[in-house]
Amino acid sequence: MASTSDIRKGLCIRYNNDIYKIIEFLHVKPGKGPAFVRTKLKSVTTGKVIDNTFSAGHKIEDIRVETHKFQYLYNDGEFYHFMNNEDYTQIRLLESSLDTPDLLKEGENVTIQINTEDNSPLSVDMPQYVVLEVTATEPGVKGNTATNATKPATVETGATVNVPLFINEGDIIRIDTEKGSYQERMKQ
Hints:
Elements: E1 2-3, E2 12-15, E3 18-28, E4 36-43, E5 49-55, E6 59-62, E7 65-75, E8 79-84, E9 90-94, E10 109-115, E11 121-125, E12 129-137, E13 150-155, E14 160-164, E15 172-176, E16 181-185
Antiparallel strand pairs: 1-6, 2-3, 2-6, 3-4, 4-5, 7-8, 7-10, 8-9, 10-11, 12-13, 12-15, 13-14, 15-16
């Protein structure tokens, strides 16, 4: 059993007869009244995100997990196929268990958390950044350079990301997977 002081991002807990992964948390100590922890939980079975507040010292049942490196192979519609980098076994996961499946490129290495009780995969942790090529974007309009002007761009995985006006088709860009936002243009 863990308590609210053990809460961290990525922790898997059992709550309301389901397993949830903590996406965000905030310890709050108001000037008046007891402290509490505000959390955002994502169900690993349904993908549904809920907000919950735990009072300070509340006992939570954490799930013992192991993390393994897997390589993304392909998807066949609803299932995404991964291969374990150590023993080459393959698993398939539903799209709902991935946070940002549209930024996943074939051959990308991810970390998958596996429940040690029944060896079922719980969640997929993407790398912090992915490097993708821009396949389609409108050219930037000269003179349209007000503060932080952006335009939509489609990358090689099919995802749409807002990028600065100077980005062109064929450019390689780095994207933050947590926010799904443009970070920088890479040297070619």
